[in-house]
């Protein structure tokens, strides 16, 4: 059983926590909004505990379930407390005003930018950015388990994330080094734009990206 820390208390934090608890992992929710954090912990029930932003990080795997800008602030705030831990970036740095561009500089990714601000003794991994909250909480779409694409420069860190992904009923897919996060994020720019397009009213943030044999 793994100890998981999730920074954030929104929809993705909830969905990741549900999947982790389904695999009998212990989950710590750390959020700025005390009321939302308490409500999420109460919803999750046994196996979950909450804390404020300044609480001690307990998980060996730390999920950054917050937007890109907040994720950078979080790794700076926690600093050396993240040393030796696997830090999972799940964000998509999409311009939400237009859904037409990324807010990251050309030639990099949110994950790589976050890694630059993270203590050198932590292991940054990109994962779960291709999953939307609703299908992730359910674990499948059309009875097909979700694929979770995983990028990172540490093979051991990726194996650790892959293990908790598989245990939660999802399929981990290693896509290579952390720079592959650029491709994952660019791909999601298109997928997210489709969710808000009037040409695709049947899409409602409930789709998934899966590789079928």
Oligomer designation:
single chain
Rg over CA atoms:
16 Å
**CATH class category name:** Alpha Beta
Structural class: alpha/beta
SSE series: EHEHEEHEHEHEEEHEH
Write down how many β-strands occur, each being a DSSP E stretch of 2 or more residues. 10
CATH architectural name: 3-Layer(aba) Sandwich
Count, helices: 7
Question: What does this 3D model show about the protein?
Answer:
With 213 residues, the chain is of the alpha/beta class. The protein has one domain (3-200): Rossmann fold, CATH 3.40.50.720. The chain is 36% helix and 20% strand. The chain has helices at 11-22, 34-44, 68-78, 110-117, 133-138, 155-167, 181-196, and strands spanning 3-7, 26-30, 48-51, 61-64, 86-89, 123-126, 140-141, 144-145, 147-152, 171-176. Strands 3-2-1-4-5-6-9-10 form an eight-stranded mixed beta sheet. Strands 7-8 form a two-stranded antiparallel ribbon. Strand 7 (140-141) and strand 8 form a beta hairpin. Helix 3 packs parallel to helix 4 (110-117).
List keywords for this structure.
213 residues; alpha/beta; Rossmann fold; 8-stranded mixed beta sheet; two-stranded antiparallel sheet; 10 strands; globular
Topology:
Elements: E1 3-7, H1 11-22, E2 26-30, H2 34-44, E3 48-51, E4 61-64, H3 68-78, E5 86-89, H4 110-117, E6 123-126, H5 133-138, E7 140-141, E8 144-145, E9 147-152, H6 155-167, E10 171-176, H7 181-196
């Amino acid at each position: 059983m793994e100890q998981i820390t999730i920074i954030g208390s929104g929809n993705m934090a909830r969905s990741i926590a549900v999947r982790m608890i389904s695999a009998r992992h212990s989950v710590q929710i750390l959020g700025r909004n005390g009321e939302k954090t308490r409500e999420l912990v109460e919803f999750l029930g046994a196996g979950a505990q909450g804390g404020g932003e300044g609480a001690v990080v307990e998980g060996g795997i730390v999920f950054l379930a917050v937007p890109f800008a907040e994720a950078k602030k979080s790794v700076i705030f926690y600093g050396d407390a993240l040393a030796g831990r696997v830090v999972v970036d799940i964000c998509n740095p999409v311009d939400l005003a237009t859904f037409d561009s990324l807010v990251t500089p050309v030639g990099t990714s949110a994950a790589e930018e976050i890694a630059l601000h993270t203590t050198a003794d932590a292991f940054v991994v990109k994962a779960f950015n291709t999953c939307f909250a609703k299908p992730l909480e359910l674990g499948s779409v059309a009875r097909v388990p979700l694929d979770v694409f995983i990028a990172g420069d540490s093979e051991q860190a990726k194996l650790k994330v892959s293990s908790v992904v598989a245990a939660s009923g999802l399929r981990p897919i290693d896509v290579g080094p952390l720079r592959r996060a650029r491709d994952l994020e660019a791909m999601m720019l298109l997928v997210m734009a489709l969710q808000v397009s009037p040409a695709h009213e049947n899409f409602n943030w409930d789709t998934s990206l899966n590789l079928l044999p």
